[in-house]
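To whoever picks this up:

The nightly regression suite flagged 3-methyladenine DNA glycosylase as changed. Nothing in the input moved, so I suspect the structure step. Input below, exactly as stored in the fixture:
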Amino acid sequence: MAHENGLITSADGRIRCFWPGELPDYLAYHDAEWGRPVTDDIRLFEKICLEGFQSGLSWLTILRKRENFRAAFAGFDFHKVARFDEDDIARLLEDKGIVRHRGKIVSTINNAGRAIEMVEEFGSLAAYFWSHEPGPDERPARMDYDTLRANPTSAASVRVSKDLKKRGWSFVGPTTVYAFMQAMGLVNDHLEGCCCRGEVEALRARFERPRVAGA
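Regenerated output under the current build:
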């Protein structure tokens, strides 16, 4: 059952954000992953790359191909992906299980090299990304349907996008970065009233932010 404020009552009786609908895989992603803080560098690299692949597509399309992407890109171990060569690009362009977009494939390989550089500078990808977590003054007072739909980017995602591009990353526009921040828990964009919002807020309250090496 849909509500005017962007929430739905699912078949299990729980009230959730509107976007997963009743699709089991999307519900599982919404409930168990989206918005929960992540510090694992492999998952962070995977997500920002997959958000790049999503450009022009739906996240559901990418989610349903995620295991294929993992197999194709060495589990998104960026030290391995950075060593991919033209033979690997040719292999990936023939892989029907992923999105066969040469620019996005080349971008992922490039970004793997940039990720290695970032780890050398900051100690981890997690330390870098969490250093850009938006402060309370940068967040809406209330996350409702209209706010979520009207804000596909944020001041923080614009800053991070610009900084990543300066560092040589590609396919990391402000919208892509904001979707990454939503998914990886740098912000809690579960709508007010969603059954997961309080859980995620509690996780974020207990969460120990990673620190930049030497800081």
